[in-house]
Amino acid sequence: ATFQFTFPFTLAAWVRPTSYALWRTILVKRDSFANNDMVLAWVFTVTTGTVQLFHGTTGFAFSYVPPLNRWTHLVVTADGAVDRLYVNGTFSQQLTATAALGTDTTAAVVLGSYNTSEAELNGGLDDVQVWRRKLTDATINLLYNNPYALLLAQSPSKQYFLPAAGGLTVTPSTLALALTTFIPTVSTPSV
Description:
This protein is mainly beta. The protein has helices at residues 137-145, 147-153, and strands at 9-17, 24-30, 38-44, 51-55, 58-61, 72-78, 82-87, 90-96, 109-111, 123-131, 158-160, 168-170.
């Protein structure tokens, strides 16, 4: 079995782009750019750097452009009707997004590139999270401001940590990755 995306879901990541000269990838589930060969793509648009979420081959571009050479926390929620973008824990923009996801259930999930050599993210990517539900505004704010407390209270579906070079292809065997950093003792918030 491969990792599947269905509505609703939430994607979260710390990003530090250094260039928008080409398409730059945060996370994709695709083999090629065709509805029957992909599910979704979370990218920075070529040249402009706007955050964009593709449902299959239909892209929904937010107006926000993360600053170059600076860490920014991005969260996108999608429910099949609306895509919402959050920047550093705060709601930024909502788009009507009724297009279905692509249909390729066997496509690879890849972080930081479309595959091993295309649309590679120039910069940094950290703490990528996939949630199988639409997080609330309060939860997204907590995820940005106190992520360890949130992780203790309710775990995301999976967490993936990008290796030092190249993209990371997520396979069924890597879905069992766990948080590997030290989690300090904190009180569990009610979320």
